[in-house]
Amino acid sequence: MFSNLILRNSRRSRKENGLFFSSLVISIVAFYMILSISTQDVMLFLQKMESDAVDKLLLLIPAFYGMTLGILFFLIYFACKYQFERRRHEFGVYLMLGMRRSKLFGMLLAEDFLTSILAMLIGLPVAVVLSEIVSLVTAKLVGMGIIGHQFSLSWFAIEWTLAGFLAIKLTALLILSGRISRQEIGTLLSQPTNRPKKQMPSVIYGLAAICGSVMLAVAYYMAIQGIAWTKVSMMGLTLLLGIVGTMLLFYGMRALIALIVKKGKGNKQLHVFTFRQIQENVIHQSNSMAISSLLILAALCCFGAGIGIAGTNNLSSGHVIDYTFEDHTAEDSSQVLPNIKAVLKENSLENQFSELFEMRVGRIRTTEDYDNAYSMDAVMDSLRSLPQSEDRDVLLNNLGYATYPYLICLSDYNRLLELSGNPALQLGEKEAAVYIDTEFTTVSRTAMLNQVLAGHPKVELDGSPIHLTGEVQSVNLVTDRSITLSFALILPDEAFLYYSQGMYDTYVNAVLSEQALNGNSLMTAYLDLNEKLDETDIEYESYLQNMGRQLFYTIASSYITLYLAIVFLVVANTIVGVQFLMSQQKTGRRYQTLIRLGATYETLCQSAGKQITWFMGLPVLVAAVSSLFGVRALFTGILSSRTRGTVAEMMFVSAAMILLLCVIEYIYMRVVKRSSDRYLLTLMQPQREE
After folding, report:
1. What is the pTM of this model?
2. d(CA 640, CA 650)
């Protein structure tokens, strides 16, 4: 009979508080997915190229795991506290009927153990399936293909998920069960009530709201303008202003709620009661609402920024050439290409490439006056004549250092343009084109410089006048992103050979042939060919290195930010939902009074629904508005100069993700409303007054 009671109570608790049970399942899924990152196909692949960076990322996993344990402990603690508060009368009846306190304690442990086991039985398979789906999608996006995917089940992740989840669940339950079992029977049988709190004048609340709004505005200005990212103290000040500003804003919202109450129309059913309840909940729970709003804000920012970066970080961007070879043993730069071809033919690898061409890059060797080898006063004057802006000032500063630029051979670069599908450059004898790697500029700055170049400004190269023409070029010269040029001139072949005096670096670029691919994915082809090239004496870099760096950036930004977003979102919504349901239970006598006065169940549900909309909607609304500024601030601090030109596109993607999370917030709100409706239904039946 006792076991039947445990089974029945456990089933009833899950049914009455589906929000909490769902949060437990989501927590288990999040635990497993973060702990199983090391077994993902993409991570195993990245360890071959970016082992140091991946190892550092994996070293952070225990820190995220420990932080999550702490956060979820408080979630479980408050959720269990709500469950016990709802059943305190039931516990009092058990004790009054003769149940020993130790047996009550054991019953609670057994009920919770059953719930935990069921949550793990549901959560772990879901986590494994989701982990495999993420791995498959990521493998497909990066070119590994479905064939290259291998099913992975991380027993390490399962063990630590179970250990961590059961540890925090048991700790929270021991604390709460101990408190419940020590309370007197009369205390358990009596209904809890809200303690009255001192009201402050409306002016105080209004000033608090204004001060909070100003603090938030200052915090977002500092973050978006990059002031917060200059040093740790400024970042700490920004976070402090944001947190205190949010707390003051919610504290001051009491004045707004009071104003709505005063202007409410009396012909609406339970209008005054509803907004009095809202006003009281805001007064009593303003700190909880502010904390929940901050957690939701953190979730929205993490989710929006992570998806925005990952969604706009095209791994195939700028992919033209597959391999770059070097030969430092050649005595003459002109012998590099023949030497590379000879080695490839000797190892039967010449058919693996459809294209092999030189990329010659040098310096000005006709003078040793490096500070005056190149001047472009006309370009600088044209830029100064443009309207003042941050982009203009940055361009002037960067170009001011371009007194000794690199030189690029026109025919080699035109071959690169041809392979990339772009039109070739047409340069006269006294003309040159400007090359700036995307790492050192943005879209807006490039457009500004193109505006100046449209006038064919005259510059001086070692005292000889030449004209700049065309648009700024930025196609990657070689495969590896470690070789980047902040400023270079593309010269006709004769001019290049003259100014470089035959002393230049020669890189041999290569494009894979159809035979090398042979139906395989691009990544598989790279890995197979790398093994063959490693057996030769050729020095090479493949696009795999470049892809690996971009891929690591995508994985690090998306996996970690999405994981944190899920954790913050679950905790925030569970806390705010549980807080409302606990507050509703403490004011249960008010609903019973309304029932005696003739209020219908539908009217009470409508009133409670409005309260939930306000109580949960305010934190979400503040967080959603703030997240737009928060995501923009994150982009300011974490994006490289190469990717800042896509901020507008990233913000669009982020806004879409924030809207999606707001839909999820609405679903959470509906779940809380259903729990509230079930509680109100229990009040409709007459009860004895103890």
Report:
1. 0.63
2. 13
Beta strands at 406-409 and 458-461: parallel, antiparallel or unpaired? unpaired
CA 265 to chain centre: 45
Backbone φ/ψ region at 398: left (φ over 0), alpha (ψ -120 to 50), beta: alpha
| Strand-pair partners of 361 | 408, 505
- How far is CA 402 from its chain centroid? 37
**3-state class percentages of the chain: helix first, strand second, coil last, to nearest 5:** 70, 10, 25
- Express each pLDDT in 371-417 by its tens digit: 888 999 999 999 999 888 888 888 888 888 888 899 999 999 999 99
Tens of pLDDT along 442-481?
A: 778 888 999 999 999 999 998 899 999 999 998 888 886 6
Burial 51-82 (b: 16+ CB within 10 A, else e): eebbeebeeebeebbeebbebbbebbbbbbbb
| Ramachandran class of 478: left when φ > 0, alpha when ψ lies in -120 to 50, beta otherwise | beta
- Please state, in angstroms and rounded to a whole number, the distance separating the CA atoms of residues 496 and 366: 11
Nearest to 631 by CA among 357, 346, 276, 224: 224
- For the record, the structure tokens of 410 come out as 């026109």
Sign of CA dihedral 260, 261, 263, 265: positive
pLDDT confidence bin for 636, thresholds 50/70/90: low
What are phi and psi for residue 460, nearest 5 degrees? -120, 130
pLDDT for 332 equals 81
Note whether 90 and 79 are within 8 A (CB): no
Q: Which residues does 351 contact at the CB level (< 8 Å), separation at least 6?
A: 513, 515, 516
Compute the distance between CA of residue 358 and CA of residue 337 in angstroms, rounded to an integer.
7
Q: What is the pLDDT of residues 221-233, one digit of tens each?
A: 887 777 877 777 8
Residue 112 CA to residue 24 CA, distance in Å, equals: 12
Helix (H) or strand (E) segment spanning residue 62? helix 51-86
Task: Read off the pLDDT of residues 501-538 as tens digits, 9 standing for 90 and up.
Answer: 988 999 999 988 887 777 666 667 777 788 888 888 88
Contact between 301 and 568 under an 8 Å Cβ cutoff? The reply is no
Question: Tokens 């149940």 map to which residue?
Answer: 99
With 50 as the cut, is the pLDDT of residue 489 above it? yes
Closest by alpha carbon to 472, among 395, 539, 528, 534? Answer: 395
Amino acid identity, residue 666? Y
* Alpha-carbon gap, residue 544 to 527, rounded angstroms: 8
Share of the chain above pLDDT 90, in %: 12
Return the closest-CA partner of residue 394 out of 433, 436, 431: 436
Q: What is the mean pLDDT of the chain?
A: 78
Give the residue extent of every domain in the chain. Answer: 1-193, 201-265, 268-319+550-689, 353-512
Report d(CA 58, CA 473) in Å as an integer.
38
55: its two tokens: 């190892």
Q: Which residues of 520-555 are buried (b: 16+ CB within 10 A; e: fewer)?
A: bbbbbbbbebeeebeeeebebbbbbbbbbbbbbbbb
Q: Which residue has the higher pLDDT, 505 or 24?
A: 505
CA-only gyration radius of the chain, Å: 33
